[in-house]
Amino acid sequence: MIFGQRVGIDLGTVNTLVYVVGQGIVLHEPTVVAYSLEDKRILAVGNDAREMLGRTPGSIIASRPMKEGVIADYTTTAAMITYFLKKALKGRVFWPTLMISIPGGASQVEKRAVVSACKQAGAADVYLIDEPLAAAIGAKIPISQASGHMIVNIGGGTAEVAVISLGQLVVNKTIRVAGTKLDEAILTHIRKKHNLIIGERTAEEIKMKIGNAFIDLEEEKKERTMEVKGRDFQTGLPKIIEVGERSINEALQKPLKQILEGVKEVLSQTPPELAADIVDKGIVLTGGSALLTNIDRYLTYYTGVASFVVEEPLFCVIRGVGMAIESLDSFKEAIR
């Protein structure tokens, strides 16, 4: 038995990542649970459960227990955390100390739900860290200095926009629009425009392959296209169509605009001295959805502030959580 292992978890709406002190990132799986309706027994978690999304018979439900960055289904989330801990610690879960990232705008009730779900999974102590702070630490931004840094962490369920100075959030806003909302926008667009019904997974695939946040009309570039398979809305029969990135760009505009409004709102509330720092340093983009093609150009164009995506944006939050749990004392202000 290993007493008091320290573990960091980035419990995301779409992906969950686990960091074990001394080993680094040991687990990266989808936040999906499949359970049977009759006896509420959990049948699969993570990758295995994701394979079942949209493909289960009536007696089995495959769902995401996290919605918009917070716990939607408490018991399933607790069971999922237990499963991920067992897998990450190779079955030796014995009162580990957990640190978990939460949206910056999470309410007290949402925080308590996370803490009790972790306690139910067998954690001795649970520390919470704001996602934007964890992302900034993971992106190697010197957050403890007396200068402003702006971070936009676009995940699966939420986009976190924050201005950080002296190791704390000065202004922050949680926008409950991110990766999953982009998928939904694609799904709706394809149903309306092409009369084709597709599933969540197909929508996500389209976003990854040909999703583009900003198309420069002056650039003469060959348009990327993709074959999409689904069910015809009118005849109900399977059908294949070809979709181009311009059409998908059009679909993404509404959710992207909501993220942009959040960024503008945070900029408008930022004290002038910190705003001057942000103009110098630019906006840092992290989170899995920052991998969307040209999202940095989109924000630069509409805010007038240079934006750039860090390397491996998907791992910023978990790295930050890991660094914070490895040296709890030096990140005392950031942790609650």
CATH superfamily of the largest domain: ATPase, nucleotide binding domain
CATH secondary-structure class of the largest domain: Alpha Beta
Distance between the termini: 28 Å
CATH topology of the largest domain: Nucleotidyltransferase, domain 5
| Beta-strand share of residues | 25-35%
**What is the N-to-C succession of helices and strands?**
EEEEEHEEEHEHEHEEEHEHEEHHEHEH
Mean pLDDT: 88
Per CATH, which architecture of the largest domain?
2-Layer Sandwich
Helix percentage range: 25-40%
- Strand order in the largest sheet: 3-2-1-9-10
DSSP strand count? 18
Helix/strand/pairing category: alpha+beta
Taking Cα atoms only, what radius of gyration do you get, to the nearest Å? 21 Å
Please outline the major beta sheet.
5 strands, mixed
What's the domain count? 3
Low-pLDDT stretches are none
Query: Helical segment tally?
Result: 10
Overall morphology: flat
